[in-house]
Amino acid sequence: MAQKEYREYLNSPGWDKKREAALKRAGGRCQLCNYPNDLEVHHRTYDRVKRERVGDLFVLCEKCHKRFHGKLPTLKEHNLTKMLLGIVVEAGKAFDVPTENAVEIVFEMLKREFGRGKGNV
Ligand SMILES: [Zn+2]
Ligand SMILES: [Zn+2]
Question: Three-state SS across the chain?
Fold first, then answer.
């Protein structure tokens, strides 16, 4: 199905009905994280667009949906970013500099620590 046709379908009353039914089946919550707002209905397959079966549709909140389609960092990446930020903030405190400057310090420390062996390879 062409992109344009698919977009038109998503604006049609036929899709509205299926969307509503899917939301109802899901109890008005994200089927992944249980969040009750910003719900979107995801197509698990595009094989039967316009004649979707019950199992073809999945209710996701906006965040889970974006994450699924790779538009948001995964939970792992998100946690890693949080961890790195934690390190930078701690370094800032330790060296008594603002967080922006601590990034540079952490980077230099990592380079010193892990870049050492390089010349011997
Ligand atoms: Zn989707
Ligand atoms: Zn969710």
Answer: CCHHHHHHHHCCHHHHHHHHHHHHHCCCCCCCCCCCCCEEEEECCCCCCCCCCHHHEEEEEHHHHHHHCCCCCCHHHHHHHHHHHHHHHHHHHHHCCCHHHHHHHHHHHHHHHHCHHHHHC
